[in-house]
Fold this sequence. Notes:
By secondary structure, this protein is α+β, with helices and mostly antiparallel strands. It has helices spanning 4-27, 155-230, 236-243; strands spanning 36-44, 49-56, 60-70, 78-84, 89-96, 98-104, 109-116, 125-135. It is built from three helices and eight strands; from the N terminus they run H-E-E-E-E-E-E-E-E-H-H.
Amino acid sequence: MDNPRRYHYRSAMVLSWSRVLIALIVAGLPMHLSALQKEITINVEPGRIDCFYEQAKAGQTIDIEYQVIDGGHGDLDISFEMAEVTGRTIVTDYKKSDNIHRHPVHYDGEFKFCFDNEFSRHNSKTVFFELIIEREGELEDTAWADIDLLEGLTPEEFYDMKVQDMEDAIKRVRNNLTKARQLQDMLRSHEARDRNVAEENYFKVNVWSFFQILVMIAVGVLQVFMVKSLFDVDSRAYKLLTKL
């Protein structure tokens, strides 16, 4: 028969590894069920307004950052409005290429986020925006603050504490990776906008160069025709030039 102490130790180890497995599974889940994080790229047609609606609770904070990454012919601007569904406007932007807004929520309700391209009649706008709705300090680790963890702990409690430490470390790594991914997404949106601007400038340079070449060819042909006409006394151009 196994020693009761050894059996007790094995039970504690099984419980510890079970909690580690749970922590790993939880780390792969969304950051918080109560928090919201969205990264969306939309195409707003000319003369239209596209709106999105999201719920927020009292005590949370709304963070939204948007950027026009393509607008056709270098037209990188759009109007933005954040408002309550009751009609009260919170913030408005008129014809801006990018901006960041932060708004604390004082009571539960639904909010709308609208991108307005009505001022443009020909160019559609590609807009990338990131929306985060979460509570302040929601990701901070305060589970073991101001507690003497080693005083009067049984072996089982000690293992539970270590597992909790591992869970907290995994959560911190996950949160840091999430922030890094958000930064990379924003850098990609900046890169996309710069690439679209460069391609638009390249197109304009090519069109203008082609037009200049056509003008140079036309001027060259006209000069040759005029010079030949000066030596052809029977041509209509010679008679016209002599009259002038």
